[in-house]
Amino acid sequence: MDILKIGEFEILPGEQRKIDLPVAKLYTDANVSLPIHIIRAKKPGPTIFVSAAVHGDELNGIEIIRRLINEKKFKIIKGTLIAVPMVNVYGVVNQSRYMPDRRDLNRCFPGSAKGSLAGRVAHIFLNEIVKHCDYGIDLHTGAIHRSNLPQIRADMSDAATKELAEVFGVPVVLNSNLVDGSLREAAVRNETKILLYEAGEALRFDEFSIRAGMKGILNVLQHLGMKRKTSASKKKVVPFIANGSQWVRANASGIVHNIVNLGDQITKGQVLAEIGSPYGEVIDAVKATRSGILIGKQNIPLVQEGEAMFHVAYFSEDDEEIAERIETIHDQLLPDNED
Ligand SMILES: [Zn+2]
Where is the Succinylglutamate desuccinylase/Aspartoacylase catalytic domain (predicted)? Predict the structure, then answer.
């Protein structure tokens, strides 16, 4: 029998379970564990993990997983889905991106059983979850006070990963290098094909980002044959692959008047924001250095000189077409939205 063993838990084909995988206690003597949902079909097939809150303040993914496993009709027909809504459970408690030892968990992989607290959590997650998986989707958001347009980051030089990135169905894919110590790097070493989904802002739920993420996971499960295709899922979005991206920075300190929104088409030289003094006069205009699509922005209307304000992705395709497609997807996922 094909038994999946996670910690002390044994999960059989056809079982659906929630387990609590113990990690280091708090100094208050309270036990801490990673909540893990495992859904196994009777039929053998691929194993995929979906993880969220590797950065503890990035909450959209927690909601994406909650909605996914609570979907009434949710059922997989083959293989195994392992959903881990809070990898950095300590960070979630503290509403912080970081671990209590101030480390970034996403720079502590592969970690070790005798290492730092962050290293130990990384080690447990890698060995108890990722090691079993052929595929993985890691859900992130922008940093605190920064919003991201829903986007996939993946190694597009790998054919199987590229295929998954395209299937996910968000309009923008950023071909991105592996960061040392990241979960993505550790997964790739384990030969787990992995996508990183980035959408929305830390400490906030963003409905568009949540819906686009859920849809993307369902698209991937259907593509892998783990879920039955529905008639509504036939419409395919072919993403645009960004060749690169750059943050546009403020050249003056002051009060920000934003002119552009996420998903907007940007042309070189276009004014993205004006920076004014507290007394009303415009001090400086923040201009795009290249043409592209706005995929990230900072939300606090106050800047210091040198601060990153707008994240622009560059494409070889027509930017206008990309902006139109982003708008179409937005309308499909949020039909009642006024903005
Ligand atoms: Zn993150």
Answer: 44-224
Distance 55 CA to ligand 1 centre (A): 5
Q: What is the pTM of this model?
A: 0.95
The span from the CA of 154 to the CA of 185, in Å, is 11
Q: Where a domain ends, among 190, 218, 237?
A: 237
pLDDT, one tens digit per residue, over 184-209 is 999 999 999 999 999 999 999 999 99
Q: Which residue has the tokens 């970034």?
A: 104
Same domain for 189 and 304? no
**239 — pLDDT class (breaks 50, 70, 90):** confident
For residue 14, what pLDDT is reported? 96
CATH number, domain containing residue 189? 3.40.630.10
Q: Is the model more confident about 320 or about 141?
A: 141
DSSP string, 42-90: SS---EEEEEE-SSTT--HHHHHHHHHHH-TT---SSSEEEEES-SSHH
Å from CA of 62 to ligand 1 middle: 12
Q: Compute, in angstroms, the gap from residue 121 CA to the centroid of ligand 1.
A: 16
C-alpha 149 to ligand 1 mean position (Å): 14
Question: Residue 54 C-alpha to ligand 1 middle, in angstroms?
Answer: 6
Q: What is the CATH number of the domain that holds 286?
A: 2.40.50.100
CA distances from 167 to 81, 124, 160 (A): 18, 30, 11
How many distinct structural domains can be found in the chain? 2
How far is 309 from 84, CA to CA, in rounded Å?
Answer: 32
- Give per-residue pLDDT as tens, 42-97: 999 999 999 999 999 999 999 999 999 998 878 999 999 999 999 999 999 999 99
Indicate whether 274 and 160 sit together in one domain: no
Q: How far is the CA of 201 from the centre of ligand 1 (A)?
A: 10
Mean pLDDT of the 140-159 span = 96
Mean local confidence (pLDDT), 6-17: 97
- The answer, yes or no, to whether residue 235 has pLDDT greater than 80, is no
Q: Are 103 and 208 found together in one domain?
A: yes
